Amino acid sequence: MRFLFLISLLGALASAQASEIAPDKKLHFLGSAAISGAARIALDGNPDAFGYSVLAGFGVGLAKEISDKKTTGFSRGDLIADFAGAVAGAYFAEKAIRPFLGREPDGGLRVGFNYTASF
Length: 119
Prior knowledge:
There is one protein chain. By secondary structure, this protein is mostly helical. The chain has one domain. Helices cover 63% and strands 5% of the residues. It has a two-stranded antiparallel sheet with strand order 1-2. β1 (101-103) and β2 form a beta hairpin. The model has no long low-confidence stretch (mean pLDDT 79).
């Protein structure tokens, strides 16, 4: 499933026109990355967490574009940045943050290092 996300991300980025890349695209990318990263951490333990977190990040961006349709207009470039950010945020959370997470015996989330040494 992740492979399909990455292939569609590359296709979306390849279809972006240079004229559509504006400074606000960085905000779209970072906002979606933060939302999907947080969703990936919150859904830890769910086998479909990666897909759901990408959906959460992209869904918020899509909702914003739908609301912008009446005021500033719908932007395909913003949606591409939202999708790219959602995939990047979920991937970063899974590969860079998730290894430091653990579960307490009562089911609570534990963040940190688990280091043991014997001499």
